[in-house]
Amino acid sequence: MTIVHRRGVVIAIEGIDGAGKTTQAKRIVRRLRSLGYFTTYTSEPTNMRVGRIIKTELAKKSFNPYRQALLFAADRIEHVERVIKPFLEAGAIVVCDRYLHSSYAYQGALTGDMSWVREINKAVPPPDLAVLIDVSVPVAIQRKRRLKPFEDPSILERVRETYLKLCDEGLMVRVDGDREIEIVEADLFAAISSRLGLGPRSL
Question: Cα dist. 190→3, 66, 74, 75, 140 in Å?
Fold first, then answer.
């Protein structure tokens, strides 16, 4: 029997590129489904109109962080309206591979203007839980086969520092991503269960 949550929830899985967030997000979706929860996976940038523009932008050697921030905000608004909201209304657990805090971390670090990044994203509802899969930059780079322009080590260090500040402010939960995949998943699921009351005991 599929379990519909008492209200839809959004879980955002975040991290610098190479942190393993996509792997963990998909593992969590499978785990929640195995427990019977109505769960869906989604990611940003999306494959919708603005999302496709972003993916083209990310492949370029030079980029404007302000332009990127606006594009991500626009893509996110469409993402919420067309994907996230309908699933929430149906009582689903929505697991997002990147969401609001990615803009705070990346564009906040790259523009140096966090207040502006927050302002352009204020129409987007925050996730019920945001989890940082935290890895050191050398580990993240080692996991990547090819680096994009925005994945320069110095940039990733700034982005990671911003993510960690968000954790210090209580806006995110940090999970150590330098360990084995199964251990990271166990800690991630424990964080989700603790915050949202999920798992076998709630069945």
Answer: 19, 36, 33, 30, 23
CATH number of the domain at 59, please: 3.40.50.300
Q: What share of the chain is helix, strand, coil (3-state, %, to 5)?
A: 55, 15, 30
Residue 137: half-sphere exposure toward Cβ, Cα within 13 Å: 14
Residue 29 forms part of a structural domain: yes
Number of independent structural domains in the chain: 1
The DSSP secondary-structure symbol of 20 reads -
For 100, the domain range is 9-202
Full pLDDT tens readout for the chain, 203 residues = 555 556 799 999 999 998 999 999 999 999 999 999 999 999 999 999 999 999 998 888 778 999 999 999 999 999 999 999 999 999 999 999 999 999 999 999 999 999 999 999 999 999 999 999 999 999 888 877 665 655 688 889 999 999 999 999 999 999 999 999 999 999 999 999 988 876 554 43
